[in-house]
Design a protein that fits this description.
single chain; 292 residues; alpha+beta; 3-stranded antiparallel β-sheet
Length: 292
């Protein structure tokens, strides 16, 4: 009986060892075998694990014109910096800047910051640049270096590079190279002058110091407020006080002349000087002059 019991115990022990060994082998195979869930698993001799499948190890890596990504043989062509991503072409690229302040935007590419506006350089452009909004010429909140708060024709203010600012004051002569510090460069009398801008057409605009705000098709400009005295140089944008005339004899230098109403060699209106009619203005227009 003792012999039989000993034999049974021995058989049970051997059976336990076999089962335990089989379980360990199954677990090891499950953890290490190449499969879609174990892309770096083991394969039989002479093969490698690629994308979860065992393939022949006679593969030649292909990294021509590639700096990152899969080499086609289960390896890699290189790694990108932490701030870069690997493109489908196997090239490291920086994250897109589209939609960020100072970068490209469009109808499809909105500015990321809701306070920025996508502004195109020319009407009809498919793309623009995201510009930061601001609150007037004295606003110093522009975050980009050497940017200042400037008005656009709609009257809104946005940050633009300082070099885009013009240099010519209101009333000065302007052209493509000598642009206006503010407002519009408009042709008047054969020359171009800087006019202040405004936002709403009005016979008497607070934006224009009480003068008229005029719609000229592309925007609005302020009719100049008379500021030049008799004898001072004037322009169409810097007109003469007291309804005086801005006249010239050589189409180069313009000066203010007092107005009068009746032609006379010696007019009380002109303090004894002549009151002369001239033909470049509406009929019955007269000015005072000491030159008879």
């Amino acid at each position: 009986m003792r012999y039989v019991l000993s034999v049974l115990i021995l058989l049970f022990s051997i059976s336990f060892l076999v089962v335990s060994c089989d379980d360990d082998t199954k677990t090891e195979d499950k953890l290490e075998a190449c499969s879609p869930s174990n892309l770096t698993g083991t394969c039989e001799e002479g093969k490698i694990c690629k994308d979860g499948t065992c393939i022949s190890n006679d593969c030649s890596p292909e990294c021509t014109n590639k700096t990152c990504g899969n080499d086609g043989c289960g390896g890699t062509c290189g790694n990108c910096n932490t701030d870069e991503t690997c493109s489908d072409a196997g090239v490291c690229v920086a994250p897109s800047q589209d939609g960020k302040l100072g970068h490209k935007c469009s109808v499809e590419i909105e500015c990321i910051d809701a306070t920025n506006l996508c502004l195109a350089s020319n009407e009809g452009d498919n793309f623009g640049i995201c510009h930061q909004s601001c609150n007037g010429e004295t606003d110093t909140s522009c975050t980009q270096t050497d940017y200042t708060c400037q008005a656009i024709p709609t009257g809104e203010f946005f940050c633009f590079p300082k070099e885009e600012l013009g240099t010519v004051e209101t009333g000065g002569l302007c052209d493509e190279e000598n642009t206006c510090l503010r407002g519009w460069c408009l042709s008047a009398g054969g020359l171009s002058y800087c006019f202040d801008d405004c936002t709403t057409a009005s016979d008497s605009s607070n934006e224009c110091g009480g003068s008229e705000c005029v719609d000229f098709g592309e925007g609005f400009y302020c009719e100049p407020v008379p500021s030049r005295e008799v004898g001072e140089r004037c322009t169409i944008a810097e007109t003469c006080v007291d309804n005086g005339w801005c006249l010239t004899s050589n189409e180069s230098n313009f000066y203010c002349f007092a107005s009068c109403t009746t032609a006379s060699d010696s007019s009380a209106e002109c303090n004894g000087d002549a009151c002369v009619e001239f033909g470049t203005a509406p009929n019955n227009s007269f000015y005072c002059t000491s030159e008879n």
